[in-house]
Amino acid sequence: MGRQIQFHSLPYDLKAFLEFVQNRDPVIVTERSSDTPEIRSVADPSSQTQVMILWNQAILGSLTRKHIVYPGRAYYGVDASLPTLELAPSEICDWNGREALLQGRLYGFFDNPSPEYEKWFNSLARWIRNNFVKVAIPLPGGYVGSAAYDWFKKGGLLLPGFRPPQSGKWLSWVEAQDQQRAVF
């Protein structure tokens, strides 16, 4: 079973979070999927839009990728059952003619947890709860980094981790964001 904390962030927010992560522990940020089995650090993880893996070397001494083959696609991926964390960054997109930010998340797979792994996940989730703003909008919930929150106050839309259909439900949800923004 997995645990997650959801958030909206812009590169500035993600950079602040990753500075905390890497100052706290010996963590390598790597891509979740790669063309090669080699584990390489992402040069600038705060600018990434692809899902990344946080590898805490104090918890897991070595990390390898498995060769994964799907019809029409082969790649190397990190085994999700290992005590690593998945970091899915937020992504800017267009939705119904407006600039929107898809929700990101920090995710841990806890079928075989260790006390160190749980403590690590909890400390990172606590940092997000203490340093990001709690979203007051019913959906999608979660937290918003300071740069993303300023962007939201200037008219940006906060979306869930996927592009929702342009249905009445989602359009009314955007109206609720616009009404909340009017309070500022």
How would you describe this structure to a colleague?
- By secondary structure, this protein is an alpha+beta fold.
- It has one domain (2-182).
- The chain is 29% helix and 32% strand.
- The chain has four helices and 13 strands.
- The protein has helices at 11-24, 115-131, 146-153, 168-182; strands spanning 2-8, 27-31, 33-34, 52-56, 65-70, 73-78, 85-88, 91-95, 98-102, 104-109, 133-134, 143-144, 157-159.
- The strands form three sheets. The chain has a seven-stranded mixed sheet with strand order 2-4-7-10-1-12-11. A three-stranded antiparallel sheet has the order 3-6-5, with no helix packed on it.
- A hairpin with a 2-residue loop joins strand 5 (65-70) and strand 6.
- It is globular and about 50 Å long.
- The N and C termini lie far apart (39 Å).
How can the largest sheet be summarized?
7 strands, mixed
Separation of the first and last Cα atoms? 39 Å
Which range best describes the helical content: under 10%, 10-25%, 25-40%, 40-55%, 55-70% or over 70%?
Answer: 25-40%
**Mean of all residue-level pLDDT scores:** 91
In percent terms, what proportion of residues is strand?
A: 25-35%
Series of H and E elements: EHEEEEEEEEEHEEHEH
How many helices in DSSP terms? 4
| Protein structure class | alpha+beta
